[in-house]
């Protein structure tokens, strides 16, 4: 079946997060695959325990870590009976745990919110209801409580074919069945715009179960129409001025908020990712922004917003796209506050903004640019965190240094400062000031020679052991000539995880060491080259690492995006991954999502007695989703999770996982 608007068999908004189009990185900078291959081809010359561990990660799965399965299992930091991998229309959690749906798309958030009615959707109603495609989940305690706080949730994007009745029809075309997808009305586009953004909602644990506090005084919806301020070095720059905002300091809305973060001072950080899909129209080839936009894949036109709003049509507002692709900070303590786009943190397809306080009090944020052959970044504030004065921290993100990673084959990593006037970041290369450098962060990183990565996603610092975990989802575009026998990961379909140790355990350091913690995929298939420990069961391996979390015990949890019948024979889910000792590289399945869904979040409450996870785009998929063998859309869904009612569509939802009888997760 074919969508008449696209040669691809699936719906265009579903493709946004896959980023499987032509690579936009034009440089000949070395790829991570080439560096890994070179490093391990000379592994006999490497010295030190980090190098030895890296070498171990390249050997056969049958020899990895230990030949003694029992020894590895006994050394695991996790205690739970593993869930069985599989595919069906429901969610599943490990035995002994409850997984309760806490918030669904359309659920009321305020005392005066209307109940959800999928046949009578409106922007006005959606702005008072939980948004669509929940991704990042954060928790901010109220009065220090692990059982009463604010849940903050990003709403990354919308799938109109799953949201609205009557959008999709099956028609006969030249004797074959084809999809006919109707254009959206302005009213439906308005609903989409309202369903984007984020939710801030008070929640409370009562009798061991979490509940939404609908009259919470801090409850708030943020959308694609929420007024925001630009702050930092780019604010007011000519390249951000539009007819609606000649000052270049005020933006309407935020787009495609994927992973995010909560700052040490208790604000909510939203990361704008795949902004390219919202813009349509064309710039002249000689327009001053043409090369800048090409590097970001703008315009892609997956959404129809430009047909109704001039600001999403580049031919009418050529500067508008420069106002997106930033990190947005929200003061959750004031529901009337203006969110701020913190431009000092760079402009690219942001995946996450997890932070940690360094030894000297500065705050470091780790940032992934979610596209094949793009880069890993970190931002270090100039000022220091004051734990006793929240107000003193509120503008820390406007001043600091953004760095990009360059990985070397000797196991070292260098963080290169992205600063105007340093190295190639000069007027000779088209940069007039730091604002230009930040608007074109990708091009600046290109010129610095950063390492081209296999789709950087979530990046988590671990305060417990001083390490940093980088999720690299996959890279189907890596060519065979970029690797060798020591690194058989051409067309890297399953991704891998890199572990970084900063010099001296200092997260602000500009140098460190790296190694591959895990190459993902089915270890029983030799040519895949996966490196899970031999204690990992047939249920325990995974592919496509995406989001991750480090709980208060310092343990790593990995969520996946992109598994399915043809890719792995299992749905996405949440895996517990050992990173230390004899059990290192052992993985166990804890939770899995229904068919078509992606696993987002995850988040652990401060007491580790709840794991919040976000089930995104359940029921999405097309002809590749066997045994269903057909596209899934509103009238003909592959699942009706979580309500399983004939009059209800699929509803992306946040799920709260707790241990039956109480207690910490996996302990």
TrEMBL record:
Q: Which Pfam families match?
A: PhoX (PF05787)
**Listed Basic and acidic residues bias regions:** 1-11
- Spans annotated as Disordered: 1-30
Query: What is the protein named?
Result: PhoX family phosphatase
Organism whose genome encodes this protein: Mesorhizobium waimense
